[in-house]
Every structure is written in structure tokens, then in C-alpha cells.
Amino acid sequence: MPITNQQVREHAFLRALYGDDYYPDHVLDKGKAILLGLCERIETEQPKDLAALYVLTETATEEFNALEAEFEAADSEIETVAREEIAEAFWFVASAYGFVDADVEELIAVREW
């Protein structure tokens, strides 16, 4: 399903990480796919409130948890800069879909990074 939200379609997810050789592009591409998958789920399922949104972001956060092993295999990790960039991406997604009151810590509550 193509994403219809114009803000999301024009957004460069994880841009700051792509500009740093410490983070491998092939792993970042998977992270970007997780975020775009989250957007697709939001558009498909149309969560009615923050609780429903948090269910969707929990799944995406768990996918990022699994991605940590791929970062490590590429001699990288989800460290402070990456954590902030990923958290910001989750907040961007929430706000782009009208959830401007979303708590960024709740969006990524199950993170292991």
C-alpha cells in the first residue's frame, strides 16, 4: 500500500545517520523500512487514540530491537545519536498522523537500545 500522507512521503527518515559512515546504509535501509511499515499500518488501521497508536509503535520498536544485532554485526550500534534520531523519527510519524500529544518515551517504551 503506498503511503498517502504527504509529510511522510517527503520526509528523509534517519537522515543524520545516513550521513555518518559509522552507521551502515544497508542496516539503516531496514530501519527506514520499519518506519515506513509503521506509517502503512497507521494508514491502514487508523488508530483512534494514543493507546491504539502505542500498540502499533510497540511492534515497530520491537523490530528495531531485533535490528540491533545487525548493527553490531556491522561494527556499529544503536547508541546515543542513533537513539535520538530513531526516537525523533517515531515522534515525527506520530505527529504527521495527528498524534501531536504522543509521548516519545511511550512511543518507544519497549526499546532495548
Question: What layout of secondary structure does this protein have?
Answer:
Elements: H1 6-10, H2 15-18, H3 25-45, H4 50-73, H5 80-96, H6 104-107
Helix pairs in contact: 3-4
Coiled coil: 57-84
InterPro entries: DUF5713
Keywords: Coiled coil
State the helical fraction. Answer: 55-70%
Bin the strand percentage.
under 5%
* Rg: 13 Å
Query: What count of helical segments does DSSP give?
Result: 6
**What is the count of β-strands?**
0
Task: Report how far apart the termini are.
Answer: 30 Å
Could you say which structural class the secondary elements and strand pairing correspond to? mainly alpha
Round the mean pLDDT to the nearest integer and report it.
97
Low-pLDDT segments, ≥5 res:
none
Q: Outline the biggest β-sheet.
A: none
- Into how many domains do the coordinates divide? 1
Shape: globular
Order of helices and strands: HHHHHH
Protein name: DUF5713 family protein
Coiled coil: 57-84
Pfam families: DUF5713
Keywords: Coiled coil
